[in-house]
Amino acid sequence: MRNFLPESWGLVFSAAGAAYGVGLLGLWALPFLISAIMLDLQLNEAQAGLLMSAEFGFTMLASLVIAPFMGHAPRRTLTIFGIILAIFANIASANIENIYVLAAVRCFAGLGAGLALACGNASVSSAKNPNLVAAHMNILSVLLMIVVMLGYAKVMAQFGLSGLYYAMAATMAIMLLTTPMLAQKAPVAERHLLAKGTSKGKNNVLLSLPAVCMMLAMFVFQARDTMGWAFVERIGTTVGYSGEELGVLLSLQAFVGLLGPIIAAMIGKRFGMSMPVILAILLTGATSLSYVLGEYSTTLYTAGVMTICLTYFYALSYLTGLAAELDREGRVAAAAGSFLSLGLAVGPAISGGLISLGGFSLAAWGIGVTVVLTLLLVTPPLASVRRVPATSVPVAAL
């Protein structure tokens, strides 16, 4: 049990609150936001997707710009600023009807979320066991997703798009309460460790082959996920589920998803990193293919949907841990998180184009390609981690 628990619950709650409760809150709310934007603003699928892509694009931009400075940047201060910016942007969005003004304000919401995402992900590298912390963060993320699935659906039904933006602002305000537990800077011990013998290539770590491949792997991994996730409700309707039944199904799969990060935390590094990471990528790919091809079988669709969170958070725990292992200052983890946002932004656009050209079958082929690409891209990071033995140098207290 002692090996299963993280060394700092403060680190887990603050990092999860920043990275997932703010940085990726838009991902959990994506199906509801898309529907509400189309209904309230009278936009089509392409226009609604473009509005969300602008927001997620700025999330990626903010987290990528700040990533190289994560070793010395004031993480707690940046996180607080980012969350407050995102809160005010969401409150303002709830009172805007002009689509162009709304798009501009959503970009500010993305900037704030990106700062929180970068600082939260970088903090994972401060742990003695980043994989364990990442797994516990994802447990909290699944719990948040359950709340979003149950609560945001009711908010959208009663108050529409403006209600969703207010709900997001309230959620972020709660996450703001966890920021005092976030470390202001990378622990002194790990900075000294890195300075000792790695100063030559220290500033170029983000340009190394393992780091570049890790960032691209996160991008392709998330693009694969959102390629199907954005249309999961539409496919369910095609299969024959009603809107109410789909709401129940999505809530149930979020509960099942708790097992993913729990399994990752329990397994840890008992089987190394390579086998769990490869297995995670294959499982997430199989899940996406199952529900995207679910138009041919209700059973296949249901099985795929029920394992979305289970496989996704299991995989994300290991991929986040792998990124953290590459650079103990958190720069790679922060940059990888920004590419996660980029995948979130372009995934729906890619699958939307494929679906319009050849239906869900063509989209399934696209998902298959992303699975193969992700496997190829994680090879250099895994090889790099195997070459560097784990250090036993303790890190300073948070």
Automatic annotation (TrEMBL):
<dbReference type="Pfam" id="PF07690">
    <property type="entry name" value="MFS_1"/>
</dbReference>
<feature type="transmembrane region" description="Helical">
    <location>
        <begin position="275"/>
        <end position="294"/>
    </location>
</feature>
<feature type="transmembrane region" description="Helical">
    <location>
        <begin position="164"/>
        <end position="183"/>
    </location>
</feature>
<keyword id="KW-1003">Cell membrane</keyword>
<feature type="transmembrane region" description="Helical">
    <location>
        <begin position="204"/>
        <end position="223"/>
    </location>
</feature>
<feature type="transmembrane region" description="Helical">
    <location>
        <begin position="300"/>
        <end position="320"/>
    </location>
</feature>
<dbReference type="InterPro" id="IPR036259">
    <property type="entry name" value="MFS_trans_sf"/>
</dbReference>
<keyword id="KW-0472">Membrane</keyword>
<dbReference type="InterPro" id="IPR020846">
    <property type="entry name" value="MFS_dom"/>
</dbReference>
<feature type="transmembrane region" description="Helical">
    <location>
        <begin position="12"/>
        <end position="38"/>
    </location>
</feature>
<feature type="transmembrane region" description="Helical">
    <location>
        <begin position="246"/>
        <end position="268"/>
    </location>
</feature>
<feature type="transmembrane region" description="Helical">
    <location>
        <begin position="77"/>
        <end position="93"/>
    </location>
</feature>
<protein>
    <submittedName>
        <fullName>MFS transporter</fullName>
    </submittedName>
</protein>
<feature type="domain" description="Major facilitator superfamily (MFS) profile">
    <location>
        <begin position="12"/>
        <end position="386"/>
    </location>
</feature>
<dbReference type="InterPro" id="IPR050189">
    <property type="entry name" value="MFS_Efflux_Transporters"/>
</dbReference>
<feature type="transmembrane region" description="Helical">
    <location>
        <begin position="132"/>
        <end position="152"/>
    </location>
</feature>
<feature type="transmembrane region" description="Helical">
    <location>
        <begin position="99"/>
        <end position="120"/>
    </location>
</feature>
<dbReference type="InterPro" id="IPR011701">
    <property type="entry name" value="MFS"/>
</dbReference>
<feature type="transmembrane region" description="Helical">
    <location>
        <begin position="357"/>
        <end position="378"/>
    </location>
</feature>
<feature type="transmembrane region" description="Helical">
    <location>
        <begin position="332"/>
        <end position="351"/>
    </location>
</feature>
<keyword id="KW-0812">Transmembrane</keyword>
<feature type="transmembrane region" description="Helical">
    <location>
        <begin position="50"/>
        <end position="70"/>
    </location>
</feature>
<keyword id="KW-1133">Transmembrane helix</keyword>
